[in-house]
Amino acid sequence: MAAKVSYADVEVGTELLAQSFPVLRETLVRYAGASGDFNPIHWNEKFAVEVGLPNVIAHGMFTMAEAARVVTDWVGDPGAVVEYSVRFTKPVVVPNDDEGALIEVSGKVAALLDDNAVRVDLTAVSDGQKVLGMARAVVRLA
Question: In the predicted model, is pLDDT for residue 1 greater than 90?
Fold first, then answer.
């Protein structure tokens, strides 16, 4: 697979399609099974509150992966992402109701690099708070 976005068609400021990702408790249980991360802060409300959290929180790596989907959907090839990093700034709190939480992610091209690569800066917000800081991906384009 190759990147579907051409370097020649991109400039600094090009915006990626923003996306929203719903997160339910069921989502966290499924992610725990897939990742092997069964830390009770991700599924046991009583435990999460006892350790000082406001409620159950989403896995940081889950949040990071959802944000990366904005980049991989844009470029069309996950293999085109050559670097990806974030800082976790706030947890995604997931209430035990029919709505859960929502992670809203936007991104834009922040720099044109050598070898047909670009740096994409991402913003991820949940419940009005930025949940990832310094979220950046370097993507090699066609």
Answer: no
**H-type alpha helices, 14-135:** 25-35, 45-50, 60-75
Helix crossing, 25-35 with 60-75: angle to 10°?
Answer: 90
Give the C-alpha separation, 32 to 9, whole Å: 39
CA distance 52 to 55: 9
Contacts within 8 Å (CB) and 24+ apart, 50-56: 53/91, 53/93, 54/93, 55/93, 55/94, 55/95, 55/96, 56/25, 56/28, 56/93, 56/94, 56/95, 56/96
Which pair of structure tokens corresponds to residue 139? 């993507």
Q: Do 58 and 94 form a contact (C-beta atoms < 8 A)?
A: yes
* Span 99-129, pLDDT tens digits: 999 999 999 999 999 999 999 999 999 999 9
